[in-house]
Amino acid sequence: MNALTKTDYNFPGQTGVYRGKTRDCYFINDDVMVMIASDRISAFDVVLPKGIPFKGQVLNQIAAKFLDATTDICPNWKLACPHPQVTVGLKCEGFRVEMIIRGILTGSAWRDYKNGCREICGVKLPEGMRENERFPEPIITPTTKADEGHDMNISKGEIIAQGIVSKEDYEVMEDYTRKLFARGQEIAAKQGLILVDTKYEFGKRDGKVYLIDEVHTPDSSRYFYAEGYEEKFEKGEPQKQLSKEFVRQWLIDHNFMNQPGQTMPEITDEYAESVSDRYIELYEHIIGEKFDKGEQSADIASTIEKKVLDYLASK
Question: Between 195 and which of 43, 90, 188, 228 could a Cys-Cys bridge form, CB atoms 3.0 to 4.6 Å apart?
Answer without folding.
Answer: 188
